Amino acid sequence: MRSSGSTRSPRRSRPVRLLVEVTGEDHPKACTGRRLLHWRRATRANRAAEGTRSPIVLDPYAPTPLSPADGRMAAEAGILVVDCSWNRLSARGAFPGDEGRFRRAGTHRRLPVLVAANPQHYGRVAQLTTAEAFCAALYVLGRPEEAERVITGFAGAEEFLEINRARLDRYREARGPDEVIAAERSLFGGS
After folding, report:
1. CA-derived radius of gyration, the chain
2. How far apart are CA 109 and CA 171, in angstroms?
3. C-alpha distance from residue 33 to each of 63, 70, 111, 117, 167 (Å)
4. Is pLDDT at 5 greater than 60 in this prediction?
5. CB neighbours of residue 76 within 10 Å
6. Angle between helices 157-173 and 130-140 (to 10 degrees)
7. What distance in Å separates the CA atoms of residue 27 and residue 34, rounded to the nearest whole number?
């Protein structure tokens, strides 16, 4: 039966476009970025539609954290994650000679501080997989259903949300980057 037009159905927003650039540094079976591509939950960055706005680039060296204030930009342009090895990242520092990974067009944001639940880096601060990074970003942007969908099927997925739920909720309630930074200080200590 069709509506009489007196009540409007709620407008559904499109899911945020998730883009992955795979560097090939991780073992293929441990690479969550490749699995996201295989499961069609993300698109390869170099196959993204030309002529679209530059995405938010999740960059661990960006000074500004992702916040709900970035929601509109993410909805319009998407989110890009560079899928690379944390071991190589730690060993090389800030990718000397390899800066091109994060020197991409777009607005650069780092994720707020969270704890990893993936088997390779369980319990380590800020060493998230690509799937965890997308999940966290979507949650912070006020899209918890999309966040849960993107991480479903990965080892540690339920634990990631469980151990970070209070943090993710605090970050999601922030109005902008300054409030995210204040929440990080409150949750993890620091000046």
Report:
1. 17
2. 14
3. 24, 22, 17, 16, 24
4. no
5. 14
6. 30
7. 10
Look up residue 46 and give its DSSP letter. G
Listed in sequence order, the residues at least 6 apart from 101 whose beta carbon sits closer than 8 Å to its beta carbon are 21, 23, 82, 84, 95
Whose structure tokens read 């540690």? 156
Relative to beta strand 79-83, strand 18-22 is parallel
> How does DSSP classify residue 167?
H
The more confidently predicted of residues 27 and 55 is 55
Would you place residue 93 in the very low, low, confident or very high pLDDT band (cuts 50, 70, 90)? Answer: very low
Length of the chain: 191
Q: Please state the domain extents for the chain.
A: 18-188
Tokens standing for 34?
């490749």
Q: Is 3 exposed, middle or buried (0-12, 13-18, 19+ CB in 10 A)?
A: exposed
pLDDT at 60 over 70: yes
Which one-letter amino acid corresponds to residue 19? L
Rounded to 10 degrees, the C-alpha dihedral 168/170/172/176 comes to -130
| Residue 9 clears pLDDT 50, i.e. is over it | no
| pTM (2 d.p.) | 0.84
